[in-house]
Amino acid sequence: GAEVWKAARDATWALMLLSIASFVVLTIADPAAAQGQPQAPGAQAPGTQPPPAQTAVALTSLVLDLQPHSGPIRRLAVDPQRQTVVTASDDKTAIVWNLADGRARHVLRVPVGSGEVGRLYAAAIDPTGKTVAVAGTSAAPGAAHRIYFFDLATGGFVRTFDARGGDIKRMAWAPDGLFLAAVYAGEPALRETYAG
To answer: Is the pLDDT of residue 110 over 80?
Structure first.
């Protein structure tokens, strides 16, 4: 109970800090400064105009590279025993992370379409730590939605089955790993499906 909650909280903070720290790129507006070459005050290249006074203040800028996720993360699935986190995102991917070093192990891709189709809102790691289920809006309204299963060790696709509804927001495995419960938006429902 409390240990799993603490591990999930710590994993969330670690991923947020990692995504900020690892993907921030500092760019320098002055090419001479970027190459470490000192430039005498007032010096300029022949045939160029001196820079406006206000650019002297803005020599650096902060650029965020939003990869590997380019959209909001909607769900975290954490397996503290195996040092694994899976993030599900609006960018239509799920990523398997190593908690020990904060690196992405695998990017999981599901079939995508236009608009919302392919967005992932749910992820659940099975109790054995071998498989992760991901789901979200996997089809257009009125079409059959799917839940996708991937191998956590390799990132390989394992199988899929009919979700019997759409817009899955949350999932959880039964302790024995035989059943997967899914919570749906839109048409509120809780379904339990044999997944063993």
So the answer is: yes
**In a 3-state reduction of DSSP, which class is residue 53?**
helix
Is pTM beyond 0.70? Reply is no
151 SS3 class: strand
Q: How far apart are CA 117 and CA 22, in angstroms?
A: 29
DSSP for 54-110, written as a single string: GGGT-SEEEEE---S--S-EEEEEEEGGGTEEEEEETTSEEEEEETTT--EEEEEE-
Q: Which residues contact 194 (CB under 8 A, 6 or more apart)?
A: 178, 179
Give yes or no for a contact between 149 and 136, defined as CB atoms under 8 angstroms apart.
no
Digit-coded pLDDT (tens) for 54-78:
434 344 544 434 357 778 888 999 9
CB atoms within 10 A of CB 116: 18
Asked whether the predicted pLDDT for residue 5 surpasses 60, the reply is no
With CA atoms as reference, report the closest residue to 187 among 147, 123, 120, 137. 137
Tokens describing residue 105 = 């192990």
Q: Helices in the chain by DSSP H: which ranges?
A: 2-22, 31-34
What is the C-alpha separation between 194 and 177, in angstroms, rounded?
Answer: 9
